[in-house]
Every structure is written in C-alpha cells, then in structure tokens.
Amino acid sequence: MAFGRVNRKKEAELVHQEAEKLNLPLEYGRFDVKPFQKARGLSPQDAARRVRFQFFNDLLRKHKAQKIALGQNADDQVETLLLRLMRGSGLKGLKGCFPAATER
Predict the structure, then answer these.
(1) CA atoms of 21 and 14, how far apart (whole Å)
(2) What's the pTM?
(3) Core vs surface per residue 15-28: b (16+ CB within 10 A) or e
C-alpha cells in the first residue's frame, strides 16, 4: 500500500500563492529523511515524523510562536487511520489526525 501526492511541487506552489493572496506567512520545508532514518535505525514513518516535528519546533522558536497551523486533507486522515489499523490498534486508537497536538 503506497500513499503520496502526485505533484508535491505544484501543490506547494498553489499553497504559496494562496498564502500570498491572504497575506499569511508560510514556511515550507523539504528534507531527505533516509540518512536520518538509517543513522538511527528508524522506520521511514518514524524518521519522517521526527524530522517533521523538529522542523515544527524550530519554526516555533524562530517565530516565537506558541502554535502552528497545518493543513490536512481527507487522504491524510484515511492514511493515519489505516496505518493505526495495520499496526493492530484497538478501538481507542482508531482515530484520524488529531486537531491539535502539543510540542513533541
């Protein structure tokens, strides 16, 4: 089972254009997770999550912010639910993405 977006660059450009129209700040990061994953012996998902949260925490410090708004779509919700189901989650764990998270 593979998940992914067809054209991330085009998607990022669209988000950038919309942020400019609305005069909203936008930070975009792209990372090569494989070296981090291999150096620490992590799964691809765990390594990507750790890199992503480090990026978010760096942004919080950079902007002296307390919260970051992130976009999720229906595919993200389904992916999260399916990954938890495949990992053997019980009923309590069968949820999509949380609406809010604290710093990790």
Answers:
(1) 11
(2) 0.62
(3) eeeeeeeeeeeeee
